[in-house]
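Final report, Chapter 2: Outcomes

The project's central promise was a pipeline that accepts a single protein chain and returns its three-dimensional structure in a standardized token representation, suitable for archiving and comparison. That pipeline is now operational. To close this chapter, we reproduce one record exactly as it appears in the project archive, with the input sequence first and the structure output second.
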Amino acid sequence: MTVNLTLLVVMGVLYAVGVYLLLERSLTRVLLGLMLLTNGTNLLILHAGGDAGSAPLYEESIAAENYSDPLPQALILTAIVISLAVTAFLLGMIYRSWVLGRRDEILDDVEDRRVARQSSYDVESDADVPADTSEFDDAPPHRDPDESVETPGVRGFGGGGSR
């Protein structure tokens, strides 16, 4: 299999520009970035499929290594269908965003900004933990004879309340 350097450079450019556009806040640019990434991936799959060969129809006179592999073409066809569906979905989102707000830019939510300003300290998970927290002691736990078996900590029978 020969390596086509021009195809590899084109794939690299498609990936680089696609990732750059995906990081933008405009939905239109995100859509264009996604389309470039899918086209770059299709080229990658096609290039990984190897050189063109004979059609994958069996004949006794053709050696097995001379056939072309139909799997990359099937994967590319599936990727085209999936990218078409995602593109249609994003176009619907862009249209709805334009109708509602006359912009296709993703805005920060007020609640997201409020959460971002909060401290990352959580009282329950960040509190000091005592050194000995094992439940598996060597000695059996002390049980009060008057304590109920059903509800520990409550005296009397059946968890009732004779204190």
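Archive annotation: Confidence is low (pLDDT under 50) at residues 159-163.
This record, like all others produced under the grant, will remain available to the consortium after the project formally closes.
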